[in-house]
Each structure stands twice: as C-alpha cells, then as structure tokens.
Amino acid sequence: MSRDTIRLPRDAYRLLQTLRAAGHSAYVVGGCVSDSLLGRLPGDWDICTSARPDQLRAIFHDQRLILTGEKHGTVAVILHGKPYEITTYRLDGSYRDHRHPDSVQFVDDLAADLARRDFTVNAMAYAPGEGIIDLYGGRRDLAAGIVRCVGTPADRFAEDALRILRALRFTAKLGFTLEPATAAAALAARDTLRTVSAERLYTELDGLLLAPGAGKTLAQYGEILGGVVPEILPCIGCTQPGRWHCYDVWQHSAAAVAALDLRGQDTRGVRVLCWATFLHDIAKPLTKAYDPKAGWTFHGHEVVGSKMVPGIFRQLKLPLNEHMKFVQKMVFLHLRPIILSEDMVTDSAVRRLLFEAGDDVEKLMTLCEADITSGIDVKVKRY
Fold it and tell me: Residue 5: how many CA atoms within 13 Å on its side-chain side?
C-alpha cells in the first residue's frame, strides 16, 4: 500500500462517495489520518465537506441522523450502529469563553478549514484518488514525534483552552513531545483551563493517565498540569533527601506511573491504579519536616494524602463514589507493604493489612512495587 493510500472502512468510503456524487468535495480528516499513517486502527472516522448542513440532511434523509451539532456545521450519520460526524468546512469566530466559537462561517475551501484546527498532526485530510492533503507539516511532525500547534500556539490555546490538556494527552498516547513554542504557550495559558468544564478536564486527564506514555508526559509537563490539579505544583522541586530517593516528589510520582505493571488488570483496576499512583505522594510537601535524628521526613503523608483525594475529585466534579474511595484507600495504604518489608513483620500487622486491603491487596502490591522501583537502584536491590 502506498504511503499516500489509506484503507477506509466501507461505510466511511460510502459516505465520501455519496457526497462526491452529489457534487461536493469530501475528505476524512484529523486523527483518523494520523492514526492510519502511524499504523494504528482509528477509533473514529470524521469527515469534512463543502456540503452545508441543510444539504447534508437532504443527501442523507433516508439515514438516521444526529443534529445536535448542526449549528456548528456537524451532522452525524448513523451507519450500522456507528456515528460518522460530517462537518462543513468552516471558519471560527472569536472564542470569548476560551472553549466555543461565538460564531462559525461556512466556507467552500478545505485549506481554510484545516487552518483552524488545533495541531498539525490533526490537520491532515485524505480522499481516495487525491491522497493525503498536508498543508502544515503533519507528516513531518509525526515522523519527528512532535505535537505542534497549527499557526500561532497562543492563538490556538486562547480559542480553546482544552487544547492544552489535549496536547498533553496526545504526547502520552503517542509517546511524543510538545514542540517548544507549543509547550511555552501551553504553560503561559494554563490558568485558562479553569474556564473549561470540569467534566471535560477529567476526560482528558483520565485519557492521559491511562495512556502508555503517561509517566514521561507527567515528568515533562507537570507545571502545565498544575492548571488542572493545583496540588501538583508544590510537589515540583520538593526534594526528598535520603537514601531512598533520587527524584523530587513530582518526578518520583511520574516515574511511579511509568513503572506500573498493569498486565492482567481489568479496566477498573487500570484506572484506579493510575489515579492512585498519580496521587499517592500528593501530600508530601505538606508533611515535610526536619527531624534532627532522622533528617527530612514526610510522616503521615499517606493519611493527609488520602484526605486530599475527595477534594481533588470535587474539583473535577467527579462523584465521590466507589472509584474515589478505591483511590483514597490505595493512597492511604501505599506505605504498608514497605513498612512490613523493613524487618517489622508480625502476624498481627499482616492480618491488619489483609483486612484493610481486602480483595484489593494485589492492586496495592502493584502500586507498592511501582513506588519502590521508581526510587533509586539500591531500593530495587533491597526489595
């Protein structure tokens, strides 16, 4: 298969051909193009077209349609139970709320539509017979492993603050890094993330934490993520002197997320472990104290940290349900296996751990292993 040829699903191909037969230009666009070029199976196939929404309704009148996005030019066509979003080429107006355009102007030009998109890797289009339309160097950035804004990064983030977090999710998903100007603009604009609905922030942050490259992204861009979870910021640069750590609190937490062995975990287990590891040392800056005999300590950080979890979940408007309680329990218990391993094992201590961890003891050990192996080499060798 040619590098300029993408294998389209039958229904996506059918939609393109139907639009073109009606006299309109049409392309698959965005993430499905970049995923295909990376050899990944796209989850969705989005289409852009010169057809206006009323024309889309007429062309696909015999299909089930979703019209909730029609005023912004999007009509979803349901084929074999799967929605395909078809969006009219458009220009966006101003973004006073840092999230949604105040108005949209429909246009006939694909190039103008691509210019409004967020990142170069998402600004590519494809149609059979024409190949890949890449006006902003998306393929070059895919090859280099870079997430770069289309045009001026500050403008893109001012239009839609959620793009800041989406950029980080892409780096974690693909193992990429942010292009320097894009990273600088994201950091400068991080406070505008407060204008985004908490639910949307959670969705992006959750996707980031569950992505294969989450640890690396956390390590590189913690200051940006502080716009979503401010409790992160005191962890950055909070040193942990002593024999057990070569990282500050934040770099250790990022390394622990990277070290998680999630094999065999179901979806619930993966999510809880990623969130618990992300937050397991969140209270260390609050509990850091100097003991003349022991040196710097973080006594009780697991207790204080577990009490911080509900507040963080409330910020993100997450329900204080079993998921939150599970994360809270993991944070509270994450030191227990380590304490037991330091020649302090008693039958009563083991029974207490098994009672408190219950059926989640294996998940707790997974978190503990990641915590231990993300310190320093001597720690790994000892345990």
Answer: 4
The tokens describing 143, both together, are 């090859």
- One-letter amino acid at 74 equals T
206-225 confidence digits (pLDDT tens): 999 999 999 999 999 999 99
Which residue, chain included where needed, has tokens 């590098």?
A: 3
CA 79 to each of CA 24, 237, 281: distance values in angstroms, whole numbers, following the listed order? 20, 52, 47
Q: What angle do CA 231, 368, 343 make, to 5 degrees?
A: 120
Q: What is the 3-state secondary structure of the chain?
A: CCCCCCCCCHHHHHHHHHHHHCCCCEEEECHHHHHHHCCCCCCCCEEEECCCHHHHHHHCCCCEEECCCHHHCEEEEEECCEEEEEEECEEECCCCCCCCCCCEEECCCHHHHHHCCCEHHHCEEEECCCEEEECCCHHHHHHHCEECECCCHHHHHHHCCHHHHHHHHHHHHHCCEECHHHHHHHHHCHHHHHHCCHHHHHHHHHHHHCCCCHHHHHHHHHHHHCCCCHHHHHHCCCCCCCCCCCCCHHHHHHHHHHHCCCCCCCHHHHHHHHHHHHHCCCCHHHHCEEECCCEEECCCHHHHHHHHHHHHHHHCCCCCCHHHHHHHHHHHHCCHHHHHHCCCCCHHHHHHHHHHHHHHHHHHHHHHHHHHHCCCHHHHHHC
pTM for the whole thing?
0.87
CA–CA gap between residue 114 and residue 211 (Å, rounded): 27
The secondary element (H helix, E strand) that includes residue 188 is helix 180-188
Q: With 0-12 CB in 10 A as exposed, 13-18 as middle and 19+ as buried, what is 178? A: buried
119 close to 150: Cβ distance less than 8 angstroms: yes
Q: What is the largest CA-CA distance in the chain?
A: 81
Tens digit of pLDDT for each residue in 80-119?
A: 999 999 999 998 766 665 556 666 889 999 999 999 999 9
